[in-house]
Automatic annotation (TrEMBL):
The lineage of its organism: Bacteria, Pseudomonadati, Pseudomonadota, Gammaproteobacteria, Moraxellales. Residues 1-24 form the signal peptide. Keywords: Signal. One of its GO terms (molecular function) is lipid binding. It comes from the Bacteria. This is START domain-containing protein.
């Protein structure tokens, strides 16, 4: 059973408190303690699942940015069915308690509402995401999905803390072997008062979990052979 954000956050805090600088002896834990620079630093390289994640700390930002690369054995329609099936986000997206579509602006633009579980002892977070899609075409074999936080789209819902940022740029491009490469660059600011160790731990762990989750979901028959078009299209290569 996947470890929860709450339990993971608690474990991370206890590990940092008990082991201090000795944490760096484990390569996977070293990334939590080594100060990041402005260049991408490899965090995880899972060759068996074709998943790679990176992190960096950009000037002027409170928290680290992340990057993901994962190869998906699926076509664009299958990926779109997973990506835009918001009701099922709790089954695979990182610590999502609730997700729902708020408004469809057009076939390439929408607003969604998401509630994330927070680490133990911290209030849960919510975020409104404004998403735009640039579908792939035969002449431009690249699909783009961009999200940014629409902080004031809905009134605050205490005790939930409104996230200040959950920004992503997702690229889908064809692979020579027929699969699709998903590349994600993003940044998260949880808002409110959140210890940097907790946010950094989440931003280290969440990208890999999300990549593994979508990789698992696109293999399900419910998304591969549903007999229906996706809610929003990623286009065609």
């Amino acid at each position: 059973m996947p470890i929860s954000w709450r339990a993971a956050g608690c474990c991370a805090f206890m590990t940092l408190a008990l082991t201090g600088h000795t944490l760096a002896a484990n390569p996977d834990d070293e990334e939590l303690t080594v100060r990041l620079g402005s260049e991408w630093r490899l965090v995880k390289n899972d060759q068996s699942r074709d998943i790679r994640t990176w992190a960096k700390l950009e000037d002027g930002k409170r928290y680290r940015s992340f990057k993901i690369e994962v190869q998906l054995d699926a076509d664009l329609d299958t990926i779109a069915r997973v990506l835009f099936d918001f009701d099922n986000y709790p089954k695979w997206f990182w610590e999502v308690r609730e997700a729902k579509l708020l408004k469809t602006v057009s076939s390439t633009e929408h607003f969604t509402y998401i509630v994330h579980n927070a680490p133990l002892g911290l209030p849960d977070r919510d975020v409104i995401l404004h998403t735009t899609i640039e579908p792939a075409t035969p002449s431009r074999p690249l699909a783009l999905v961009k999200t940014h936080s629409a902080v004031n789209y809905l009134p605050a819902k205490p005790p939930l803390v409104r996230m200040l940022a959950e920004e992503t740029l997702v690229r889908f491009s064809p692979m020579p072997d027929g699969g699709i490469l998903m590349e994600v660059e993003g940044y998260v600011d949880p808002g409110g008062s959140a210890p940097i160790w907790a946010t950094n731990f989440v931003q280290r762990s969440a990208p890999y979990a999300i990549a593994a989750g979508i990789r698992r979901m696109v293999k399900l028959d419910a998304y591969r052979n549903p007999g229906t078009a996706p809610r929003y299209s990623l286009g065609r290569f």
